[in-house]
């Protein structure tokens, strides 16, 4: 049991999630500290994505609550949770395939500025100079400027991931959830992504990152929690966790490649 | 109370038709994942198999009489159907039973149409969005109905009930009630049993044959079954043919109840879609249950006692039920969890 | 509010030119008579409005015929009770269809995908059935709602005497049943087109496209998609209501058959045929279908004989026999076949065909330019496997 200290932003309190008889999450209690990068690792099927699904309101927990800065998130809709400052990158990129890269990045910016609903029916997008500038900047930062007017569905997998990250970052969320942001990427792309994530590390954003790639974990994480079969089996700094025999056992016994 | 029983009975035969069409629609959705708006047209084509069959049987030989004159003073035309001429009394029997006998024509015809339709058009739409499936099959339905109209005209084609099934059966007497309390047209009774029989046959086929078992396995998990090296596509094509046959024979037998015209399919289509959704997309028992339930509900709503309380309810009850079901239980009565649930 | 991007302004001006000169360029096609011209404008408006829902959000409604019907009834009642002024009638049509759309949309939008389609279908069918039965006092059932000599027409009769014949709708003395009627409809169409253009290029329009593309992502991005959808639904319902009102303005009569689901089906067809999600596509679709319905259906064998007269006699006979099945009474067959062919080969509709041909030409002219010109605004939805 982790006591929530004064600088805990997000607290996953005793969350339990079952699918039929399967305990995807059991007594998961995690505190995410302001401004840190917290990695969650664990074998396939450990419940990592499920944990993020519970946080963003995609799935209701069977028991327990998620608290952001003293406010209970459980029961709120995904859009409300996003409006409260939580953005997520999915395991398989969730973007707008039919829209241009530019529009993909502009839309989240509108959500941030105008809220969950706004009837700006007769304003022209072209008159939204500020948002356009912001979007262009981030697209350039992410090296997507060559394809700014291509529709996002035509992007390579790696570019899609990067685009999704850009979509989240333009909202300047308080908490960024990343579900395997480098999976399936080449070593080179992985390193670029690590650099990108490091750059935003200084901005005070809290990051929760799910990762199989230990190289990424050790480059980024301040804190690591290990999830296996729905339970937290170890927590600590990357070095502490690496030496933990329980963790090694979980990985060897699991399906980790 | 008697009136209620009577209305329930009245709803059952219509429910049987709904159930049969919905069954085929569900089979197609479950196996191929296709929302088929042309399924109503298959019902209509089945009905026109009966019309065609009778047309063939009643082809006549016309002889001018040498002795008798018609009222207009021309030689009287004596018309004898070939069937009668060749087979004598047996020919008359054939004519009398033309509707049930049309099933023999309908089965191969519908199977062929079904398979051609699936191989020729529908198979290209497995992976396309549901909206596009709806659109292409909707277009196909228009084409089919217009072709039928081009051949048979726009007027309804009444079909006769075989002599033995004319009139009404006094069901009340059978269960010990007074006479004439619950009488029910015999043909509708035939239709009810017929539809139950076909439904039973389809379920038995799916349950007890290896073919059926593979299809059911494929319905719940297509990937795994194809991974086992079983050619699931061919079976699914045949299932489409079977669905067409079920709709077709349902149409054949319905002709004495409702004289078919080319719009028959569209009228039934909308209702059966509602039936399928109420039963739960992809659930065969759901389709059957919802078919009969909605038939009965519709029939009950058309009782004058009910109409006095809520005027117009008979017109809209099915849609109203659909709306309520979709809102409170989106996956329908017996729908599986997770099958197009949002 | 009235500023639009340059590209849109050009489209609008060209469109206005095409619409306003319709009486001229349609005459070689035998379609330049007021009754049909009015229909061209009215159904184009209907399709433009429908596209705001179906084209932008991807939600397939089978219930828009109901709004068309409500608009017609509201307009005729406004003639009967208040005044023959068409503007007033359109206002009534818009308000009532809007309220109607709000109610139906609120409920139907609790579901998406095919369930949404079925819900709208159910509501439209209910309206249709009720219009024929219980609501007869309002709709006059099978006879249809018509003007009578005894109508109160309160506002009109304050200023003038009751005439001896049935009045026609007129705008400050201009009657609404000839070419004037067409120009009135055309102006309304242009306004509707302009508004649709504004919506499509607004952030609101972008959100609708986002919903079509990936509704879940919209939610995780912080958008409450329901009110966006509902607004789009109501706006497009109002377009349908105004179109229904215009039908009544040009011919003061309203019948329940306008509400039948096949009428909604026809509307879907128009949109698909022309090109879903594009602005002009649905208009072209509407024109083609209305042209077929009115001109093609009037063709008969003798016209075909003249048409194919250049062929040798026996071939001519055969060709005429086959093609006669597709015209006249059989024009629906043409329509259905065309529809199937379009969905199979050109899911983006006629607009996609135009785009393919023009990009082919562009490439031929300029072989160095190998990059395809992608216009993200009008991108057809790629089939689901693509992009992975
Ligand atoms: N919606 C669902 N319904 C039923 N079972 C689910 C659902 N989502 C996840 N599960 C099950 O819960 C378990 C945990 O899944 P989860 O996706 O959270 O694993 P993960 O740790 O993210 O694995 P991976 O590394 O493969 O992404 C798995 O056994 C999975 O099959
Ligand atoms: Mg996962």
CATH superfamily of the largest domain in chain A, please? Answer: P-loop containing nucleotide triphosphate hydrolases
Structural class of chain A: alpha/beta
What is the level-2 CATH architecture name of the largest domain in chain A? 3-Layer(aba) Sandwich
Domain tally of chain B: 1
Helix content of chain B: 55-70%
Oligomerization status of the protein chains: heterotrimer
| Shape assignment of chain B | globular
| Termini Cα gap of chain A | 30 Å
Just give the CATH class of the largest domain in chain A. Answer: Alpha Beta
How big is the Rg of chain A? 19 Å
Query: Between the first and last Cα atoms of chain B, what is the distance in angstroms?
Result: 40 Å
Structural features, described:
The complex is a heterotrimer of chains A (257), B (342) and C (388). With 257 residues, chain A is an alpha/beta fold. Chain A folds into 2 domains: 1-85 and 175-183 and 204-257, 3-Layer(aba) Sandwich (Rossmann fold), CATH 3.40.50.300; 92-172, no CATH class. Chain A has 9 helices and 10 strands. In chain A, the strands form 2 sheets. Chain A has a 6-stranded mixed β-sheet with strand order 6-7-8-3-9-10, sandwiched between helices. A 4-stranded antiparallel β-sheet of chain A has the order 2-1-4-5, with helices on one face. In chain A, strand 1 (8-19) and strand 2 (22-33) form a beta hairpin. In chain A, 46% of the residues are buried. Chain B has one domain. Helix content of chain B is 68%, strand content 7%. Chain B has helices at residues 2-32, 39-57, 82-87, 89-96, 98-120, 130-152, 171-174, 186-208, 210-220, 222-227, 232-254, 264-279, 284-301, 304-309, 313-328, and strands at residues 60-69, 75-81, 168-170, 183-185. Chain B has a two-stranded antiparallel sheet with strand order 1-2. A two-stranded antiparallel ribbon of chain B has the order 3-4. Chain B starts with a helix and ends in a 14-residue tail after the last helix. Chain C has 388 residues and is mainly α. In chain C, the strands form 2 sheets. Chain C has a two-stranded antiparallel sheet with strand order 1-4. In chain C, strands 2-3 form a two-stranded antiparallel ribbon. In chain C, helix 5 runs antiparallel to helix 11. The longest helix of chain C is centred in the middle third of the chain and has 26 residues, at 225-250. The two termini of chain C are 40 Å apart. Chains in contact: A-C, B-C. Chains B and C meet through helix 6, helix 12 and helix 15 of B and helix 6, helix 12 and helix 16 of C. The structure holds adenosine-5'-triphosphate and magnesium ion. Residues 48-49, 91, 179 of chain A line the site of magnesium ion.
């Amino acid at each position: 049991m982790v006591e929530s200290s004064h600088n805990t932003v997000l607290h996953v309190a005793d969350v339990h999630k079952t699918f039929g008889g399967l305990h995807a999450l059991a007594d998961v209690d995690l505190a995410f500290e302001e401004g840190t990068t917290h990695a969650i690792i664990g074998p396939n099927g450990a419940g990592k994505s499920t944990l993020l699904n519970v946080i963003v309101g995609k799935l209701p927990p069977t028991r327990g609550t998620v608290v952001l800065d003293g406010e209970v998130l459980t029961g709120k809709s995904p859009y409300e949770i996003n409006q409260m400052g939580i953005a997520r990158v999915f395991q398989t990129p969730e973007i707008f395939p039919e829209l241009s890269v530019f529009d993909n990045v502009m839309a989240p910016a509108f959500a941030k500025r105008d809220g969950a609903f706004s009837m700006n029916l007769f304003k022209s997008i072209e008159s939204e100079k500020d948002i356009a500038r912001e979007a262009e900047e981030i697209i350039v930062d992410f090296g997507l400027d060559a394809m700014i007017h291509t529709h996002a569905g035509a992007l390579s997998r790696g570019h899609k991931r990067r685009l999704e990250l850009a979509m989240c970052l333009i909202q300047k969320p308080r908490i960024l959830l990343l579900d395997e942001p480098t999976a399936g990427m080449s070593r080179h792309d992985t390193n670029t992504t690590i650099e990108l994530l490091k750059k935003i590390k200084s901005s005070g954003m809290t990051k929760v990152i799910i990762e199989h790639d230990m190289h990424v974990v050790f480059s980024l994480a301040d804190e690591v929690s290990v999830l296996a079969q729905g339970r937290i089996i170890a927590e600590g700094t990357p070095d502490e966790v690496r030496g933990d025999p329980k963790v090694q056992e979980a990985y060897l016994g699991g399906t980790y490649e | 109370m008697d009136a209620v029983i009577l209305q329930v009975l009245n709803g059952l035969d219509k429910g049987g038709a709904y159930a049969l069409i919905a069954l085929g629609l569900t089979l197609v959705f479950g196996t191929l994942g296709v929302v088929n708006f042309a399924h109503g047209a298959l019902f209509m084509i089945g009905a026109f198999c009966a019309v065609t069959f009778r047309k063939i049987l009643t082809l006549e030989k016309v002889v001018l009489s040498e002795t008798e004159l018609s009222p207009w003073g021309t030689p009287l035309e004596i018309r004898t159907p070939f069937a009668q001429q060749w087979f004598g009394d047996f020919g008359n029997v054939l004519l009398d039973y033309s509707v049930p006998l049309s099933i023999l024509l309908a089965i191969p015809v519908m199977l062929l149409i079904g398979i051609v339709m699936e191989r020729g058009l529908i198979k290209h739409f497995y992976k396309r969005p549901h909206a596009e499936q709806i659109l292409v099959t909707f277009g196909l339905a228009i084409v089919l109905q217009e072709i039928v109209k081009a051949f048979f005209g726009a007027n309804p084609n009444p079909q006769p009930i075989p002599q033995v099934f004319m009139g009404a059966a006094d069901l009340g007497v059978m269960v010990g009630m007074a006479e004439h309390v619950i009488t029910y047209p015999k043909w509708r009774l035939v239709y009810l049993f017929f539809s139950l029989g076909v439904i039973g046959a389809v379920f038995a086929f799916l349950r007890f044959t290896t073919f059926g078992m593979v299809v059911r396995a494929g319905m719940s998990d297509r990937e795994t079954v194809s991974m086992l090296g079983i050619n699931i596509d061919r079976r699914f094509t045949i299932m489409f043919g079977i669905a067409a046959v079920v709709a077709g024979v349902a149409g054949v037998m319905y002709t004495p109840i409702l004289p078919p015209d080319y719009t028959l399919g569209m009228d039934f289509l909308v209702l059966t879609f509602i039936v399928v959704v109420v039963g739960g997309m992809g659930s065969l028992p759901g389709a059957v249950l919802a078919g009969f339930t909605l038939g009965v509900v519709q029939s009950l709503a058309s009782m004058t006692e009910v109409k006095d309380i809520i005027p117009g309810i008979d017109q809209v009850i099915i849609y109203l039920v659909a709306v309520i079901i979709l809102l409170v239980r989106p996956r329908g009565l017996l729908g599986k969890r997770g099958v197009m649930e949002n | 509010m009235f500023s639009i991007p340059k590209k849109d302004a050009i489209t609008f001006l060209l469109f206005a030119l095409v619409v306003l000169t319709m009486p001229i360029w349609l005459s070689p096609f035998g379609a330049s008579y007021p009754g049909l011209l009015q229909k061209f404008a009215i159904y184009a408006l209907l399709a433009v409005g429908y596209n705001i829902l179906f084209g932008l959000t991807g939600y397939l409604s089978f219930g828009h015929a109901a709004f068309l019907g409500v608009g017609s009834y509201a307009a005729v009642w406004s003639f009967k009770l208040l005044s023959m002024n068409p503007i007033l009638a359109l206002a009534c049509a818009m308000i009532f269809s809007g309220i109607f759309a709000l109610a139906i949309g609120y409920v139907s939008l609790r579901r998406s995908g095919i369930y949404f389609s079925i819900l709208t279908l159910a509501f439209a069918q209910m309206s249709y059935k009720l219009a024929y039965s219980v609501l007869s006092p309002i709709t006059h059932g099978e006879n249809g709602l018509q003007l009578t000599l005894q109508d109160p027409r309160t506002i009109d009769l304050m200023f003038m005497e009751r005439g001896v014949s049935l009045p026609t709708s007129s705008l400050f003395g201009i009657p609404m049943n000839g070419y004037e009627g067409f120009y009135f409809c055309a102006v309304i169409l242009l306004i509707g087109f302009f508004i649709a253009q504004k919506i499509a290029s607004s952030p609101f329009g972008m959100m609708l496209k986002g919903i079509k593309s990936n509704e879940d992502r919209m939610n995780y991005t912080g958008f409450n998609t329901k009110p966006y959808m509902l607004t789009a639904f109501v706006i497009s319902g109002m377009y349908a209501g105004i179109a229904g009102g215009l039908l009544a303005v040009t011919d003061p009569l309203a019948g329940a058959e306008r509400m039948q689901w096949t009428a909604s089906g026809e509307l879907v067809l128009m949109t698909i045929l022309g090109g879903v999600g594009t602005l002009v596509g649905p208009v072209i679709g509407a024109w083609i279908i209305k042209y077929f319905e009115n001109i093609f259906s009037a063709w008969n064998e003798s016209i075909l004989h003249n048409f194919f007269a250049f062929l040798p006699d026996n071939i001519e006979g055969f060709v005429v026999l086959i093609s006669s099945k597709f015209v006249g009474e059989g024009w629906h067959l043409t329509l259905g076949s065309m529809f199937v062919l379009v969905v199979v080969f050109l899911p983006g509709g006629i607009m996609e065909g135009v785009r393919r041909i023009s990009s082919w030409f562009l490439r031929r002219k300029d072989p160095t330019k190998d990059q395809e010109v992608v216009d993200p605004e009008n991108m057809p939805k790629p089939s689901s496997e693509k992009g992975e």
